[in-house]
Amino acid sequence: MSILDVQGLTKSFGGLTAVNDVTFQVPERGIISVIGPNGAGKTTFFNLITGIYTPNKGTIQLAGKSLVGLRPDQVVDAGISRTFQNIRLFPSMTAEENIMLGRGVRLKSGYWDAILRSGKFRHDEAEALDTARLMLDFVGLGKWRNELSTNLPYGDQRKLEIARALATTPKLILLDEPAAGMNPRETEDLKALIRAIRDELGVTVVLIEHDMRLVMTLSENITVLNYGSKLAEGLPHEVRNNPEVMEAYLGRGAAAGEHGKEARL
Length: 265
Ligand SMILES: Nc1ncnc2c1ncn2[C@@H]1O[C@H](COP(=O)(O)OP(=O)(O)OP(=O)(O)O)[C@@H](O)[C@H]1O
Hints:
Rossmann fold; alpha/beta; six-stranded mixed beta sheet; nucleotide-binding; ATP binding; L-valine transmembrane transporter activity; L-phenylalanine transmembrane transporter activity; 10 strands; ATP-binding; 2 domains; 12 helices; four-stranded antiparallel beta sheet
């Protein structure tokens, strides 16, 4: 059964159709990748799902509930969290504080509860701390709990962002280029972590990724976007051997030269 069901999704910026009539279904507890050359519309697609942009056309349903028109925080509340292409941590906060901030979205106590430090607020705060610690341990960063996030090694900062997204207890997590800038060992660790997110937490994973080795070995299904439209969809070996997909990557001579990783399918 699909946990995420996207039908005919379209988004234009002026004359440019960044996402064009895309239909996309994600099975519950799947690990699915969205790939495509630079500018193909991948991040815009994530921005539509997470309420940052409103689509011109199309529907988005999470477990049967429509997400179109919801604000980003409401989408998180509905059960989708995400990480971003560029690291978005608060450098002057500790690893634990960064995660508690993520968990804050789920808390129900309001402004006056906080001012008055009501029982509800203290309960929520304790729960947020528990979740933060649990998620830090889950991603293997327990030892960095009280360290400023800026002092963490690069790969660990990316893991911290994943922990923060997980702290909202999502049904589905969207990872935007999680391996960007990672060395091969960090990428291997990331692969194991993504599998654990699905296997141990039961969270469905959708990732945008340019590292083809990671995509091909991790994904159960791959959707390829090109100029905003869905070019192909299928199992990793089907996508890898699809002549249209090869053309989309290699046909852009500049992309093959500048982004060698992308060109190697
Ligand atoms: N807010 C915006 N306003 C105008 N154009 C935009 C906006 N956001 C994205 N675009 C355009 O939409 C197209 C798709 O961009 P998008 O960032 O979604 O691609 P991408 O596949 O994620 O690329 P990359 O792999 O380089 O991150 C690009 O031509 C981009 O310039």
